[in-house]
Task: structure prediction
Amino acid sequence: MRGGARGFDKLPGDGLYSDMILLRRAVLVVAVLVSALRLSAAPPNIVMIVSDDHHWGDYSFMGHPHIRTPHLDKLAGQSLTFTRGYVPSSLCCPSLASMITGLYPHQHKITSNDPPPVPGMKGPAFQKSPQFEEGRELMSKFIEAVPTLPRELGRQGYLSLQTGKWWQKHFSRGGFTHGMTVGGRHGDAGLDIGRKTMQPIHDFIATAKKEAKPFFLWYAPMMPHDPHTPPQRILDKYKDKTPSLHVAKYWAMVEWFDETCGQLLTHIEDQGLAENTIVVYVTDNGWITNPTTGRYAEKSKQSQYDGGLRTPIMVRWPGKVKPQRSPHLASSLDIMPTLLAAAGLKPTPQMPGLNLLDAQAVSARKTLYGECFTHNFVDMQNPASCLKWRWVIEGETKLIVPSKRNQPDDVVELYDLGKDPHEEKNLASAESAKVERLSKLLDAWWPAK
Result:
């Protein structure tokens, strides 16, 4: 007799036995392959770095002659980098809310930083009043009423950590599983991140690794935001490069912020996580230092101009995203659809943004829209009541239309950003046909009534 399976003599039914052995082996091989595929397709970790009050040109890689940002320069070189990125609104709270929801402020209703003012009540007294507390509670309910990035990622098993700026009370109101902010106006204990410590991030990453879960990290330090209190060793680099100490302090804050980004990215590399971690970079709104007062100058924060609205946007995903500079327009509203797609999720129909990794969709985009509002709400249930300006960019052309309600003395503005990046020459009166056409686009986007 010929030898059968395992070297035994072949007996009646051994053919079936051999077939079963082969089938089991095949099943085992398939199981191993499937397991390997699952490991290779593990959901990516996600890190969002959000700069705070930072002009779009204040980086080495964006051409600033003095400010040094070696870590962000390196990140830009490793990323799909959009140098013409924008936020829809040039004020901290609504801008951050738009990043984490993928919605315009008029959609999520968080248009402003603070509740409507109470006549005769200012500063600390207002912030301790029942009216202020009621308004902040409503703002938190607004964020709970719409999908947020950490809440959606939680459906895929992600842990999520909030650090830094956060306006919507306890971090859990936004869907985070872990966090630092428990209720303060714009961050309370969360504002220690970067300026005082990075330990909460290290602890969170250790927890995610121990639980073998993907993670989402929101790193939004109050940097280079004032108070501009950089380490003396960094300030000394800039004091002789500008006659204004205020400007030197801001420049030094930018480099200090860059240092913390380097610490964060180095820790991710040291933990062996860089290859399967998406890093996204954006700023919440711009800043130009008034050299005399140290406060923000015109055409920056809270304004309708690129000095308050423009930001580089970067996406790094080793092996998945080709590092390159893109000439195309991008919006912070694109971040949520991009990251949802990377995690195997779909955006809701209400989200207007694009997947920045869809090159065809990005190159086909012709326009960006945005809206700027009052610092304090007027009517918290009616976004149009708080509107100051709407704007649209088509190619290199930018139209700004003021709200007659809140900016009655303003005029319509039209700029050629390619020739006039600092928006100094208003072309509206000379190009009325273009103003009319772009105004119709704005009205079709959001009529603001």
Observations:
- The chain has a mean pLDDT of 93.
- The radius of gyration is 26 Å.
- The chain is about 35% helix and 15% strand.
